[in-house]
C-alpha cells in the first residue's frame, strides 16, 4: 500500500502544479482545437516527459539537504518560502486578465511540448517545496523505490491532467477565464495554508 501511496502522491503533486490554466495546458487545448486530439496528446506527452526530470532534480536537491543535519533547518525554511511565493504567484495570476489563447505551434509537437515544459521555471521550486513538506511530515520516504515511484507518479499525473485539458478542450475554451480565476484563488489559498502549517511546525 505504501508503494501505491507514493505513486498517488506524485500524481496529486502534478495536479496541484499544473491544474491552473497556463502556458502548457492552454497550448495543449489550442493544439487540440487547431490540429485534433491526437496532436494535443502528442504535445502533452512531450511536456509530461520533462516533468519526470524536473521532479527528479527537486527530489535529489531536497534529499541532499535532508541528509545534512546542519542545513535541515534551511531546508524547512526554504519550503515555507516556496509555499508563500506560490501562494502569491497564484493570487497574482487570479487578479490578472486571463488570456485563454495558447501559443499556436507547428512542427514536431512532442519536442515542442518538451521544450515548453523545460522553460517552466516554476516546476523545480514547486516540487522542491512540496516534496520537502511531504518529507518533513513523514509522508514521503526519501529512499528507493519510493523516490522513483513519486517521480513516475508526477510524470503520469501531468500527462493525465494535460489529457483532461485535451479531451475537454471545447468546454475549457468557453469557460477558461472563470476556471482560471477560481482555480488560481483556490491554489493560492491552499499554498498559503500549507505555508502557515509548515511555519507552525
Low-confidence stretches: none
- SS content category: mainly alpha
The total strand number stands at 0
Strand content: under 5%
State the helicity in percent bands: over 70%
Query: What is the domain tally?
Result: 1
Instruction: Give the SSE string.
Output: HHHHHHHH
Q: Tell me the Rg in angstroms.
A: 17 Å
The main pleated sheet reads as: none
* Secondary structure tally, helices: 8
Termini Cα gap: 27 Å
Global morphology? globular
Give the averaged pLDDT, no decimals. Answer: 79
Keywords: Cell membrane, Membrane, Transmembrane, Transmembrane helix
Protein name: LysE family transporter
Pfam families: LysE
Membrane topology: Multi-pass membrane protein
Based on the model shown, name its key terms.
mainly alpha; 81% helix; globular; 201 residues
How would you summarize the topology of this molecule?
Elements: H1 2-18, H2 23-35, H3 37-66, H4 72-95, H5 109-118, H6 123-136, H7 146-167, H8 169-200
Description:
- With 201 residues, the protein is mainly α.
- It has one domain (2-200).
- Helix content is 81%, strand content 0%.
- The protein contains eight helices and no strands.
- It has helices at 2-18, 23-35, 37-66, 72-95, 109-118, 123-136, 146-167, 169-200.
- The model has no long low-confidence stretch (mean pLDDT 79).
- The chain crosses the membrane at residues 6-29, 41-65, 77-95, 107-128, 148-171, 183-200.
- It comes from Aureibaculum flavum.
Short summary of the structure?
This protein is an all-alpha fold and 201 residues long. The chain has helices at 2-18, 23-35, 37-66, 72-95, 109-118, 123-136, 146-167, 169-200. Helix content is 81%, strand content 0%.
